[in-house]
Amino acid sequence: MQSEKGLVLYQNKAFIEHIIDAVLPISRNIQLITNGSYYDYLKYNVVKDLIIDKGPIGGIYSALTQSETELNLILSCDIPLISTEIVLELIANHNSNFDATLFEDAHRIHPLIGIYSKNCLPILKKAIDEDDLKMMHFLSKISLQKLNVDEPKSHLFKNINTIAELNELNNNEYKIA
Predict the structure, then answer these.
(1) Is 138 within 8 Å of 124 (Cβ atoms)?
(2) Pairing of the two strands 100-104 and 109-117
(3) DSSP 138-156
(4) Residue 167 exposed, middle or buried by CB count within 10 Å (0-12, 13-18, 19+)
(5) How sure is the predictor about 155, in pLDDT bands with cuts at 50, 70 and 90?
(6) Where are the alpha helices (DSSP H) in the chain?
(7) Cα dihedral sign, 99-83-27-24
(8) Considering only CA atoms, which of 42, 5, 36 is closest in space to residue 21?
(9) Where does residue 144 fall: left (phi above 0), alpha (psi -120 to 50 degrees), or beta otherwise?
(10) pTM above 0.85, yes or no
(11) Are 74 and 58 in contact (CB under 8 A)?
């Protein structure tokens, strides 16, 4: 995107604000994992990566390490169509026998919309130490609960990574569930 993705605008509002709006009806305990001051205007607790430049693995590790709760909702900053209903569905269907609960559609797993347990910390740390930063490698090493997403709702889980994807998002009137 060539800019901080959470600050990209969709419907005249930053992606991160759409995500926060989806979480606020459920919890006010919101922490932002970032190494910059981009989100200071939001007045939420900012947590710095404990080990920088380790991508989503490092972000999840930092979030879980610094969290006071056993289970944590992890959401990436580039999913502007996420909704309270989706988050509630994730929470309602989480089984505590698993290290993580994620959504999966016909095409892929969505690892950055999930509930993660602190049980993941040793595996995350080992991945960081070995510079094995692929999410799918990490997910293959934990007990994972996958919640199926029906095709009509799969667009709500889309992360926006390119200008082309942003243009497609802006050119389509997606119903936020």
Answers:
(1) yes
(2) antiparallel
(3) HHTTS-EEEEE--GGGGGG
(4) exposed
(5) confident
(6) 15-23, 55-66, 84-93, 121-129, 135-139, 163-171
(7) positive
(8) 42
(9) beta
(10) yes
(11) no
